[in-house]
Amino acid sequence: MAQHLSIRVPWHDNGWTGCVCNNPDCNQACRVLKNIALARSDLKREQCQHYASDEVSTNAAFVPPCLTESGMFMSEHSTAAIRNHPYVYDSHYNHILPTQVVAEPYSFLATPYKWTLRDDSRESPNAWFYTQFNESIEIRVGSNNWVSNGINQKHIFEYFYENVVPNESVIVAYAKAVPFIESSGRILIGLGCVELVGPLKEYDYANPPTGDKMTSFLWERTIPHSIRGNRKNGFLFPFDEIKKYMNDNPLQNPDELVVIAPDDYRDEFSYATEHLSHDALILTLNKTMSVLKKYNEIGLSYGKGSSWDACIKWCHIQLEKAWKDRGAYPGLGAVLSALGVPYGFDVAKAIKARYNDNELWENIANSIEDLSAILPNHQKGILKCFTTTKRENVAELLDEKQSYLRLLSRITLTLPQAKLLLDDATRSDRWLCNYADQLTNIHNSDLSAAVIDNPYILFEKTYRLEEKYRIGIGKIDLALFPPEFVAEQFFSGDDSNRITEQDDKRRLRAIIVFILEQEASNGSSLMLACDLIASVGKFRSDVPDIEPEVRLATLLSKRRKDFFEEYFVQFPVELIPESGDKRTETSLQLIRLQEIGSKISEFVNNRIDHSLSVNDDWDLLLNSVLKKEQQSEQGREQESRKEKVIAIEKMACSKISVLTGGAGTGKTTTLAALCKSNAIQSEGILVLAPTGKARVVLSSKLRKEGVRSTAKTLFQFLKNSKHCDTNTWSYYLSGKVDSTTAATVIIDECSMLTEEMFASLIEAVKNAKRVIFVGDPNQLPPIGTGKPFYDLVQKLKDQNGQPHYANLLVSNRQKQGGTTDIRLDVELSKLFSEDLVSQVQEDLFTQISLDGTNIEFIPCEETAMLPAAIEQALAKIGITDIPSFDASLGGELESSGKWMNFNSAGSVENWQILSPYRNKEVVGTSGINALVQSAYRIPKPINHRNTPAPLGVDGIRFAEKVINVQNQDRTSKNWKGSVWSPMLPMDRCECYTANGEIGLTTGLKDNYHFIQFATQDGYIYNFYSGASEDSPLELAYALTVHKAQGSGFKSTIFVLIEPDRGINPLVTREMLYTALTRQSEKVFIIYNKEPSEIRKYSGVELSDLAHRKTNLFGNTVLRQVKDGWFDSKHIFITEDGTKVLSKSEVIVYNMMFEAGLNPIYERELRLGDIIVHPDFTIETTMGDIFWEHLGMLGDYGYRKDWERKKKLYSEHGISIENGNLILSQDELNGSIDSTKIKSQIQNIIK
Q1: Can you tell me the mean pLDDT for 1132-1137?
Q2: Which residues have C-beta within 8 Å of that of residue 1213, sequence separation ≥ 6?
Q3: pLDDT band at 339 (very low <50, low <70, confident <90, very high)
């Protein structure tokens, strides 16, 4: 039975052909590998660029760091590098010489990293497989956990490659990152066969090792392969052709053109080189064939090599071999290990070598008892730790639970999965029991009978647990639905109760749960039955499809209703097609999301019918806060104060309320004034926020105003209240209420909350007297289920009098100079909002071209020009060289002039580059960060401190701007001394770093980077130096818009580079709004189109919020727009199908339409040199009448704009007095007077 392999390779821009990359500086995808990142952080980066495209040979002047990472596996010639033993500084290894490692033509350099971990590591396979590893002969050097004794190394490597068979074993190459793929996961690069396993090579020695001198072997091993450009016996995926196709077809989902390794087998595509199970290979080959068929479908060129059909045929051949080798019981090793059999995988292998699949279970118990007769001689040592009594106990279990254990053995379970199901110690783990039972009740009873009846319960009971415990549907399918040519071999008489039909309700239920969970992760809490049925059909390409009518009939069957409603329920949804004929359709929702929705609705409905009584002088409290702040122009200031006082009164008197408003409208100020009330402050105030930055902004403001409060990130709070888990980052209902919650709870940045977070939160703060949700509903919705804040805002907004809804409209951001008194950056952001778009001036882009005070477009016609465009933008904010760059980050030259010191992180928010992408070449944040780093930090500025060991794969150095990407609580003993301050009291320190906090490397010492965060300036957090692929810190000169949400900066530089044709597929309306509201002073937009073209992103078709299908607070109505269904709350369409901008305009238009007036919406009207678009134009025999509906007269800026437009109308003879101008308006509470509008319509008719 051949053992297959996976092997990790770095991304390469010229086909891994034995040359240096064509453009190394643009290849940031290879830096996700630790060894390459470490090497490229020094002079090798410059050398890579210097030798770009040069061929690398065995005697090359320069060897790029990717060589030993299999970066040249398609080279026609040999390549070589010198390896230095890592422990030569130790006396046991100082005799070892630098040794050459040679990569033969068309060869991988395989390095099984995980297998070189000592068995005292929880990750080491040496604890599970009988590699003959001997811990007693190891010498620990420092704190390393790697096998270093040559005897052990030889045993391990011989075991690892023992069953790798030339011309039979398949080798699958994958990369951790590909520049144009944003999805996470391992991306396949190519497949072929192993042609040979190269010899194991020992290091060279100065003298033969004797006494305490250790032997040692190179970890790299040459594996020649069969992959060639002709695709005869293996192939690479056509990435150049894919990139070209994507450029011409920007709306094509790139994930459909590549193969992403199966999630269920992620560990098998990790650790550089790893064993690949037959199941992992089978799923990989099936997905590969689907992608190859897609190439045929879209006409992707296959050039001079074999056709895609020939590649499909090759995959079929390998697939058939894999199925035959797999056998019926690939999970037997994990099952035996979980039952307590030491080295159960080796024992299972020995038993299967003795008995075929049909004989195995008749003999397995006896084989365990008489194991000495089964094991080969070199594995007899297993018996030393498996006594006769233990063997008898296991044999008895195998007899008692044979049906259950036999079924589990059919599934390729991992050891943690098997232990979850069989090992008492694992099942009784207190944390796992408490957490798992909250999600799936997996510990409530013995699952054996249920699993025998329905194996897909294994998926349903584990899919929300920690990744290592999840048992995917694909694994179960492979066990139950082998292809016909092996099915008879795999199943015999005692399998009469197995699932044999692909449309079995048990399988269908599991698939539907999976799809609904996937839909939830993409934002929607429910799914149309018709869409779900289509997705069921696409679920697996290798199992016969479930016929559409069978899927639908099974799903909607009343007889099966109870069975399905254990996991999901049906909901009616009203659909409004473009044809206008309304109909009701069925949608489905997960039970857990229904419970979450009910929890949220109950909480809100119970609170909106009650009010609180608080008497205070809100004007006085607001004035006490505002007197310390910059004053606006008088009229604007009066409007601003008025709306703030109204908002404070509503929040004070409501048990639940929302405070909304765009950036700069004064939400923080308003909350500070509210909290200054002695009545509120005396009962306690809790401030919560999803990001560390948002938490600090509000809590700092309260502290400045002398308000006592407790501030936490949402994760901190919900972790303590037992509503979330640190291993899965998931939130759940636990039934627990936080008994210490303050009377007033304020949650900021609520647009980032998923339904799970929202429900967990309200359950925890159930006893709070007053709960205030704060945010901007126009921002990006959460990464995950739903849009609960938006839905809550709409519910409270629609109430009569809006007693619980407070909206701040007046922007307090001040204009400095320019041709108008309006902030044009604020105006542009409104274009991408839902409720403010009607305020946008018609000549906005003309004004922007004339006034660059707060916004400026910087042209960038092609990607290659981006570095120059970024340099230009930085120059406009005063960064022209290293000293000015240092100054922008708070650097101060000490008096001697020798050293540049960075004593604070307070300046890291002076400027920020933003991009929609992370991985994309050049325009992604990875590339931009490397660009900025190479310009200002590499090589080291002469007055900077040395960085002995750069941190993380980004190679973070002294004085670098960074972002923390992991929540870390540093209050435990393990973190003692890792947080300190030379000046500030430690009792005020958070001792906690939240995901999203931005900081600066202000010092280095003893292999540690000292980081200060802007949110906790003055406190220093130690981070261990050195390259690590899971470092909690990343460079932060450039951030994705999602990561920047919740943060603010003085100036921002937004990079928006579109394909030559079409739109940027990652950009949504909410993303643009969020990107354009991060700055307090100015935003620069680097754009490769005319500025006005950015308007195209304002449509509802590109709204993430509108795409999400939810049913909080009532029925769901979906409206068709082009080919998609959208939440009708976001779409304003009249009875005759005309799109308008607001609900009020729908009412006005429909009333005119029903009266026979046939209004024309926003028809162009030229008034001199100016073009305007009246809301409605009514053609009459007496001339045109223009109707303007004024929807936001409560907003100062809107009112000023209307006064200018009204004056323009008057100058051209259009006025109320002349009878050709009609005005209607929304009331301040958002309502509309229909009676008055009806009267105005009647006057026109008369």
Answers
A1: 86
A2: 1220
A3: very high
Pick the closest to residue 1109 from 1098, 1120, 1097 (CA basis): 1120
DSSP helix/strand/coil, 1176: strand
Cα separation, 205 vs 162, in Å, equals 27
Amino acid (1-letter code) at residue 1188: E
Q: Which of 307, 281, 285 is nearest to 296 (CA)?
A: 307
For 612, 992, 1013, the CA distances from 989, given in Å and listed in that order, are 35, 8, 12
Which residues make Cβ contacts (< 8 Å) with residue 430, sequence separation at least 6?
Answer: none
Q: Find, among 692, 672, 597, the residue nearest to 1111 by Cα.
A: 597
Q: Is the dihedral of CA 733, 736, 737, 740 positive or negative?
A: negative
DSSP string over 817-862: SSSSSS-HHHHHHHTT-SSSGGGS-TTHHHHHHH--SSEEEEE--S
Non-local (6+) Cβ contacts of 808 within 8 A are: 640, 643, 644, 647, 659, 660, 661, 662, 665, 666, 667, 670
- Whole-angstrom CA distances from 1127 to 590, 737, 786, 1132 are 19, 33, 12, 10
DSSP labels, 1024-1054? E-B--TT-SEEE-SEEEHHHHTT--EEEEEE
Backbone phi, then psi, for 584, in 5-degree steps? Answer: -105, 130
Strands 1183-1190 and 1176-1180: antiparallel
DSSP-based helix, strand, coil % in the chain, nearest 5: 40, 15, 45
Q: For residue 651, which amino acid is it? A: M
Q: What percent of the chain has pLDDT over 90?
A: 67
Q: What span, in angstroms and rounded, lies between the C-alpha atoms of 1099 and 1101?
A: 5
Q: Which amino acid is at 115?
A: W
Burial class (CB in 10 A: 0-12, 13-18, 19+), 90: middle
* 63, 9 Cβ separation under 8 angstroms: no
Please report which confidence band the pLDDT of residue 429 belongs to, taking 50, 70 and 90 as the band edges.
low
- What is the reported pLDDT for 200? 96
- Residue located via tokens 């479930």: 546
Q: Which helix (H) or strand (E) holds 118?
A: none
**79, β-bridge pairs:** 103
**Quick one: which of 733, 831, 866 has its CA closest to 435?**
733
Helices (H), 977-1088: 1041-1044, 1069-1075
Please report the sign of the dihedral spanned by the C-alpha atoms of residue 227, residue 230, residue 233, residue 237.
positive
- The DSSP line for 986-1028 is GGG---EE-TT-EEEEEEEETTEEEEEEGGGTT-EEEEE-B--
Instruction: Of 573, 588, 598, 462, give the one whose Cα is nearest residue 525.
Output: 588
Give DSSP secondary structure letters for 463-524: TTS-GGG---HHHHHHHH---HHHHHHH--GGGTTS---TT-HHHHHHHHHHHHHHHHHTT-
**In the predicted structure, residue 382 carries a pLDDT above the cut 60:** yes
Single-letter residue type at 293: K
DSSP structure class, residue 199: P
DSSP-assigned letter for residue 3? P
| CA 20 – CA 496 distance, rounded (Å) | 59
Residue 1059 CA to residue 1069 CA, distance in Å, equals: 17
- Asked if 155 and 132 count as a contact pair (C-beta separation under 8 A), the reply is yes
Cβ–Cβ contacts within 10 Å for residue 1169, how many? 5
Q: What's the chain's Rg over C-alpha atoms?
A: 33
Residue pair 723/783 in contact (Cβ under 8 Å)? The answer is no
Instruction: Tokens for 648, please give them.
Output: 């404070």
Question: Within 10 A of 1097 (CB to CB), how many other CB atoms are there?
Answer: 21
Q: What is the pTM of this model?
A: 0.92
3-state secondary structure of 181: coil
Alpha-carbon gap, residue 232 to 246, rounded angstroms:
27
Q: Using one digit for the tens of pLDDT, what is the confidence trace for 436-485?
A: 555 666 665 678 999 999 999 999 999 999 999 999 999 999 999 999 88
Mean of pLDDT values over 981-990: 86
Task: Give the number of other Cβ atoms within 10 Å of residue 960's Cβ.
Answer: 27
Residue 199 is which amino acid?
A: P
pLDDT of residue 446: 76
Helix, strand, or coil here: 413? coil
